[in-house]
Automatic annotation (TrEMBL):
Classification via HAMAP family: Pep_deformylase (MF_00163)
Record protein name field: Peptide deformylase
Free-text comment on the cofactor: Binds 1 Fe(2+) ion.
Cofactor annotation: Fe(2+)
GO molecular function: metal ion binding; peptide deformylase activity
EC number(s) recorded for this UniProt protein: 3.5.1.88
Chain residues that bind Fe cation: C100, H144, H148
Signal peptide bounds: none
Catalytic residues in the record: E145
UniProt keyword list: Hydrolase, Iron, Metal-binding, Protein biosynthesis
Gene designation per UniProt: def
Organism, as annotated: Candidatus Roizmanbacteria bacterium CG09_land_8_20_14_0_10_41_9
Amino acid sequence: MAIRKVIQIGHPSLKAKNKSIIDFKSSVIKKLIKDLKDTMKKNGLIGIAAPQIAENYLVFVTHPRNTKSRKLGKADKFRIYINPKVTFCSKEKHIVYEGCGSVANGNLFVPVIRPIEIEIEASDKMGKRFKLRCDGILSRVIQHEYDHMYGIEFTEKISDYRKILSHEFYVKNIRNSKEQTKVSKITKIEYKKLY
């Protein structure tokens, strides 16, 4: 198990250019994926990108799951996205409160408008390309982590600065609220191998 430090907003790695992965058998990349998985779980996150542990590669992982404090209904399995590219975003959007491991010290949750449904193409850890179309919290966490690939923090997408919340208020009043739960519900996960 390799738990890495999640760097905080302002660190130059969060804005640096990220490199494509070419050698999928590289021990560096294999270790990076394991570190991302372990760090995400240890910090109670549902997604994390390589730049958040100061590794500037085009890779992130997701694992939206039910926990003692987070009730998602349908969860998803652990997924790896290498050299990702979002290929579709629905015109319909909604607002959901988001947090980020890289602003954990600030304990902030903010309203962010994002497309409800997206489609992404990426490679798995073996270098095989796949396509994933999804909605709910899976769509949202993919978009959030995908932004990290291009140096974009969720704080740059706040829809209303008057509605920024502390972690404590978010947990008590928003996280498992009817509205937040409704827009976070995963109703679509369409996975297809490409080659």
